Please model this.
Amino acid sequence: NQVIGQPVSEIWPEWADVLARSVDQNRTEMLEVTGEKDQVRQYTLHLSPVYNRHQVRSGVLVVVLDTTDRKQAEDERLRMSKLESLGVMAAGIAHDFNNTLSGVVGYLSMAKQGQQPGDTIYNYLSLAEEAAVHAKNLTRQLMTFAKGGDPLKETRSVADVIYNAEMLVPRETNIERGWEVEKDLWAADLD
Model:
């Protein structure tokens, strides 16, 4: 009741510019107003001229709609759509990468056939093969995540995970390796 009959420019001074423009026909304006605590609200103003019985414009009818929630919902839908598109793209890339890794694993396996177990080259090829298989598993996890599925967990030895991670470090580096694992360490559900 406090706004009825009051000049809009006094109630909402931020809107004075919009309302000062001549309203000779119906029009719609979009406004953003920063309120308390820097909260931004979006409003849609529908303006229509009001004529007296002599067809002389005597005022303006202003209908104000707070469209903040609708705008936020639209923004959220757009964000989710972009994320979904990104997921589809990531799944496609992961699928192609997985196919490439399958070829790498196959060629490494064939190269190992020409070597003797225990030879340096055989050991390097084995490490490369393990790394490629590990990359395939990571790629599979990425495809699962990109498709919106739950991570594929499996019960594994934590000691094995640490050992496999250590084996990925080339032997010729200056990185000192060393780790201790309790003998009764439980397995864990890992993805």
About this structure: Helices lie at 8-11, 16-20, 68-113, 120-146, 158-167. The chain has a mean pLDDT of 81.
